[in-house]
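Suppose a colleague, Dr. K., hands you the sequence of a protein chain of 406 amino acids and asks what its three-dimensional shape might be. Before reaching for any lab equipment, you can write down a predicted structure in token form. Begin with the sequence itself:
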Amino acid sequence: MRRAAVLAALILSGVLAGCATVSTQPAPDASRGPPPIAGPEAPAPAPAALPGPQVGDQRLPPVSLSDVPGWTGEDHAAALELVAQSCRERPRPELGYACQQILAVSGSSGPEARALLESLFRAEPLGQSGLLTAYFSPRYDVRFSRTGEFTAPIRPRPEDLQVEPDARPDPSRPGWKGEGRLLGGIWAPYDDRGAIEAREEQRPLGWMRPEDLFFLQIQGSGTLVLPDGRRKRAVFVATNGLPFRGIATPMRDQGLLPPDGTSGEAIRSWLAANRGPQADAVMRLNPRYVFFRMEEDDGTEPLGAAGIPLMAGRAIAVDPLFHQYGDLYWIDARAPSLAGAFPTYSRLVAALDTGGAIRGPVRADLYMGRGERAGAEAGRVKHQLSMWRLVPAPEFAGRGQGAPGP
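The predicted structure, expressed as tokens, is then:
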């Protein structure tokens, strides 16, 4: 999305995780990988061959879908539709035969869908447990001039922000995609959040409440509403290239919020209630800064890094160093650490997005949809996660798109 969520360093101590989603019109430049939630924040390409999940030196064998936790409670017809959409819009070559069979079917009932999925796929465990967070496409008020509470400018990409053309992922600089600038002919890191906010913006795209802009940057994109009801979409275009740092843990450690009260909703409420120098100091603990462009909002779901619309509740953001866009996964997330959270999230999902704080092989950010209700749920997701990658059943392995039936 965008939007990326806002999600391995977590903004809200792992609650909101900086997923970056993009506009409905992918931009041509992609130094990040997604159609740039606008361009220079594209993720590094995933490796051609991914290591299989292992325990010690032993690869974990695939299991039947019927054996993964939560499978019996799945909406199998909806799961089949997700697979069909993935096959149409982001097909994986190794799933060619399975996609061929699924796209030949229409209107399957739950039992029929379940039987078809169980016959075509196996679930390959991804090893140890990890973390599930969630993100959404927010909706915030905006003004076209600075007034009242609307004191934070929405900034376009600065003219001096450049991307080093030959930059490669650097593990010591998480989230860096080559962003920087030339100072006296020497390549240097770009300014951090505090330095950027200290500059007067000469070309503001609009004005927002500071805490709303901060959360918009976490999510990566969102809908902005003017007083007359007109709607615009803020679309990610670049970052300053600095690592994403969560603010929930320091807020908890400073006694600003209780240990189980660091949901996105709680953090945003605190920032709003303490708007000014105190809230600014907390937000500046995260040096990463996101720049936007503005376009018309057509009411559709945003595009993820894979370049296709995100399906609410069925799309996840992943680390492209370990996963490939279009891959299908079973997720089972339990043991929430935030008050008011749903106890479990078990469902079939597709890897369609990424984000600056999504790092590691068992790490996912679940896209919840658009608006306030989706945001309230997303802000409470911080669950222990197990993941399984869907692979062809042994009898269909190696059969590509267009291969004859058995």
